[in-house]
Amino acid sequence: MTDPQTSVAAPEGAIGPVDPGTTPTAAAPSSPTAVPPSSAAGPAAGSGPGRSFALWFAVLAIGLAMYLPTLHPSITWYNSGELVAAAMTLDVPHPPGYPLFTRLANLAVRLPLGGEPAWRVNLLSALLGASGAGFFALWLHRAGLPAAGALAMAVWAMGFATFWEQATNAEVYTLEVLLLSLYLWVGWGPTDGRFGPGRAFALGCLTTLGIGNRPTFAVLALALLPRWQEIGLGKRLDGRTLEWAFLGAMVGGLPTLDLYLRLQNPERVLMDPLVGRGLDGFWRVFTAADFRKALFVFPPGELLARAWAWVQFMAGDGGPALIILPGLALWHLARGADSRPASDGQEPTAEQSPVEAARAASPRSWLAARLEPAMLACLWILLVNSGFVLNYNAFEAQTMLLPSVLALCGMSGLGVARLTASHPALGVFILCFVAAGGVLLGHSRLTPRDQEAVRWAARMTAAVPRGATLLVSNDVEFRPLWYLRLAHGFRPDLTFRLIDALGPEEIEVLRQEVRTRPVLGSLVYPPDLRALLRPHFLLEPAGFLTRLRPLVAEIVDAPRPGGSTLRLSDGGTLSVDTPQIKTWPIATAATQGISESRLRAVSYDYTLFPAGDSSFQRVIGAFLVDAEGKPPQSRGVLTAYDLHRALDMLPGPPAHLQPNYGLRLHREFVLPADLPPGTWSLRLLEIPIVSTSPEIFPTGLPDETLLNLEGATEVFRLAHGLGDRPLIRAAPTWEQLVAGWRAPDGAPSWLDLGPLWLD
User: Fold this and answer.
1) What distance, in Å, lies between the first and last C-alpha atoms of the chain?
2) Can you tell me the distance from the alpha carbon of 446 to that of 317, in angstroms, rounded to the nearest whole number?
3) What residues contact residue 175 under an 8 Å CB cut-off, 6+ apart?
4) I need a surface site. Which of 149, 226, 265, 347 has the fewest CB within 10 A?
């Protein structure tokens, strides 16, 4: 007897393989251009459990072959350190708390595998991402895409540069991909509309697991409604099926219950212990209530600019085909004829299949008449996920776009299958070609696996005295330091004080600490931190950081002998001492694989003799330059410089200074780790106020996407020790900055001090 899986044809208009046991019905012939991909390519042939497992395993194997050699060896910036720390301690990370991920990560860190705890959680992300892509391929195949095409689209998604980054890093987004893909695959359901107890239980469990991981999953889950309408699911559910779905939902809600219990722990560190207490506090954390104020804050013009940045980001990380193919598919479907039988309002006949009967019993919109449920599901996920990200003002917003990547890949696969329905082999070739190109592109855009966050923590603390207090921002500074302390006992002598907000009470605490111990901070975040601190402290550069000192300025009546003089445009002068190179050893604990062993900084002192209050307003720049007068640069901006106003360092107005008296100031800035050896010099100059234009002083990195402008800039400032100094564009604006500016007497407005020898 012939296997019904290989002999039963799909009903007209069906978009998925016919499940075993479904009674075949006669289907009227249709034109080749109107044949859905499932009936044209016949993906149902031989698509039994063994075939499905082979497809999933093939995607998993390819994904691990991509991800394992490129795993980050340790933590990265932002959430990575926090999530690994939460895995190690079962503390609660930032809202919505991610209870399922932290529990899975807690199991991962206990595995007896090589590498440090962060590496094991990175491995978990890789397994989740590759597994999720495998179930995404199974769903596409069940929805009508040939197995080879489904595999290609899953590989294309895994090769998307941001997907690749998230799958090789301790992040929650690959778990979201797994839950969403499983939900689509399980919830697609058989064509006869029957949901057995196992499927109902799994669907209920996945729904609450997904919502518990990220509440926005509840909106993404609506993507299956067109499919359920197509198979008439609502009319075929019975009480027993609903009971199993409810039971599954209860089981899937256990991690959320676990989150509630963990929020009651008063010993939490990663989140303020007072946040999340009780039912009301739990609800605020679970729904990320404090983050919702960052939604829908962009005016129309900026929203359009972000939408264009989204297009550039998708095309840049996945290739132009990721935008072109879905666009072509939608255009073709929108202008084409309906390939499904229209509803004529008549009662279904006995000859109709369950799917055809469900279609006939319910009217369909113009959009639904032209898009198959799988295409509608992808379009819904794309609009919801991308719409949320475009309207959400958050650092690293582009990392949340993985569901949109899946949707674009799914639309590409389904669209190409329809466009090449009469030549299915050509469609598979196109999909494999773009997937291979996408993987090569994604690999070329991966960030270096150089442990930048760990290296920053080691370099930043090298010049910090023992027993000091560090003012750190919660998002990007505290998390690497806290992870290194938990995993490697790094700098236990330091006290961390979070300064995401600074009020009068915190200022008074800092006043007391400054009298008894060193207090330092990067002053990168919040952006107005220097302005908040300056009325209360003398702010002095110290290596990577700025040191808070009591309000005592050094007033002198004569310059030191042997100094060089720089004339200011208002007649004031700077008497500059010879600059020096300061060096500190870098702690080797917790920095395996980091070759750098010391931190270097340029230190210089000068005395300002003002001609009037305007002298304190002058912008003074000190730039490290090579023998040809060129400064170091990275990503289009300079990296080894100091830029400030004397007024910014004063404890108060300069009116108390007497004529012919000067103010002595200390400055220093760190040098890039990769600075080549040789002879350098320090170029000191006055920056004209007219030069403070965006062309010279950009608000963010010139090459960064608008979706992550602030976050990337914050990390760049930290990694290069720029603190709150403004960014300066590299050539040709560097030449514009230093060329042609003269003091009133015609003398050049800069000094070249040195030489400085770097070995």
Assistant:
1) 82
2) 10
3) 100, 101, 104, 125, 128, 132, 213
4) 347
In this structure, the strands spanning 573-576 and 598-609 are: antiparallel
pLDDT tens digit sequence for 302-347:
999 999 999 999 999 999 999 999 998 888 877 764 444 333 333 4
d(CA 413, CA 407): 10
Q: How far apart are CA 322 and CA 183, in angstroms?
A: 23
For 113, the 3-state DSSP assignment is: coil
pLDDT tens, residue by residue, 603-632 = 998 888 888 777 778 888 899 988 888 889
Q: Are 542 and 575 in contact (CB under 8 A)?
A: no
Q: What is the mean pLDDT of the chain?
A: 83
* Virtual torsion, Cα 231, 237, 242, 248, nearest 10 deg: -30
- Give me the sheet containing 641-645, strands edge to edge: 641-645, 619-625, 678-687, 750-758
pLDDT at 518: 94
Single-letter code of the amino acid located at 383: L
Classify burial at 123, counting beta carbons within 10 Å of its beta carbon; exposed 0-12, middle 13-18, buried 19 or more: buried
Token pair 């009116």 is found at 655
Which H or E run contains 579? none
In this structure, are residues 408 and 183 in contact, taking their beta carbons and an 8 Å threshold? Answer: no
Helix (H) or strand (E) run with residue 634 in it: strand 633-634
How far apart, in whole angstroms, are the C-alpha atoms of residue 751 and residue 132? 60
Whether 589 shows a pLDDT value over 70: the answer reads: no
| Residue bearing tokens 């676990």 | 258
Contact 125, 169 (CB under 8 A): yes
Q: In angstroms, what CA-CA distances link 335 with 226, 314, 330, 375?
A: 20, 25, 9, 15
Tokens of 79: 């959430």
Yes or no: say if 37 and 83 are a contact pair by the CB < 8 Å rule. Answer: no
Instruction: In whole angstroms, give the CA distance from residue 749 to residue 354.
Output: 85
Residue appearing with tokens 């090459």: 703
Residue 373 contacts residue 226 (beta carbons within 8 Å): yes
Cα separation, 156 vs 373, whole angstroms? 22
Report the SS3 class of residue 461.
helix
